[in-house]
Amino acid sequence: DSGVTQTPKHLITATGQRVTLRCSPRSGDLSVYWYQQSLDQGLQFLIQYYNGEERAKGNILERFSAQQFPDLHSELNLSSLELGDSALYFCASSPEPGTYNEQFFGPGTRLTVL
Amino acid sequence: AQSVTQLDSQVPVFEEAPVELRCNYSSSVSVYLFWYVQYPNQGLQLLLKYLSGSTLVKGINGFEAEFNKSQTSFHLRKPSVHISDTAEYFCAVSDQGGAQKLVFGQGTRLTINP
Predict the structure, then answer these.
(1) How far apart are CA B58 and CA B22, in angstroms?
(2) What is the number of other CB atoms lying within 10 angstroms of the CB of residue A1?
(3) Which of A29, A20, A34 is nearest to A89 (CA)?
(4) What is the pLDDT of residues A78-106, one digit of tens each?
(5) What's the rounded Cα separation, in Å, for the pair B17 and A61?
(6) Which of A33, A79, B54, B105 is the most exposed place for a label (fewest CB within 10 A)?
(7) How far, in Å, CA of B65 to CA of B20, rounded?
(8) Is A83 helix (H, G, I), strand (E, B) or coil?
(9) For residue B58, what are the CA distances in angstroms to A104, B17, B24, B50, B109?
(10) What angle do CA B5, B53, B2 make, to 5 degrees?
(11) Strands B56-58, B64-68: pairing kind
């Protein structure tokens, strides 16, 4: 158990819908990373937040957005869903930036878009 | 920008045999190197990491990896595998500053046959 929690574990929805994925980082970790794992694209970095502020952006679609709240939990919002958005979405957390920050991964949310 | 190539998508081996999973990377800056393991229906777990110093790094579950700067490789090895090592293995890099987002390879599925 990494200490990172993600809800829900599974999500099934239809094209065009909007969903919210939630991540609670390990106690004390200030950074949250979101990754997408799909069959065709593999594991890709989406976005990082540090202490409530966006810090880095990767291959995140404009239909997707994220935020980190004052209690440090984070939400990833996916809208106008398409079949290709079906994937496993991971959240990872790490402590305050230093020389090196190990990222601890949650169990993931499996999104199925029908 | 960094990229990671895992040279084998699938590696079948017999139980108690040695195994090597190959990883090459490309980067214009200094990087940290990682191997993660993903067991079926689970999140990612860090096996080992190379940050600096000795090029041979030891990780959990009897795995080790060797960093070769001239060949830009970071191959993962285990002298004797067990059925429980059946999983997907991911090689990843991150830059040494900034967000330290992880860039993953496509993964290698290790199947252990009795």
Answers:
(1) 16
(2) 8
(3) A34
(4) 999 999 999 999 999 998 766 677 899 99
(5) 44
(6) B54
(7) 9
(8) helix
(9) 19, 19, 18, 9, 21
(10) 25
(11) antiparallel
Name which of B102, B98, B39, B86 is nearest A92 in CA terms.
B102
Is B46 within 8 Å of chain A by CB? yes
> Min CA distance, B43 vs chain A (Å)?
4
How far the first Cα of chain A sits from its last, in Å, is: 31
**Residue in this structure with the two tokens 């090895």, named with its chain if needed:** B77
Contacts of A43 in chain B (CB under 8 A): 90, 102, 104, 107
CA distances from B50 to A104, B28, B47 (A): 16, 17, 11
Give yes or no for a contact between A38 and A87, defined as CB atoms under 8 angstroms apart: yes
| Interchain pair B49, A48: CB under 8 A | no
Length of chain B: 114
Give A4's contacts in chain B (Cβ within 8 Å).
43
For chains A and B, count residue pairs whose Cβ atoms are closer than 8 Å. Answer: 48
Q: Going from the first residue of chain B to its last (114 residues), give the mean pLDDT of each consecutive group of 10, the final group possibly shorter.
A: 94 97 93 93 91 92 95 97 96 83 95 93
Q: Please state the φ and ψ torsions of residue A51, each to the nearest 5 degrees.
A: 50, 40
- Measure the CA–CA gap between A39 and B50, rounded to whole angstroms: 27
Q: Do A2 and B45 touch (CB under 8 A)?
A: yes
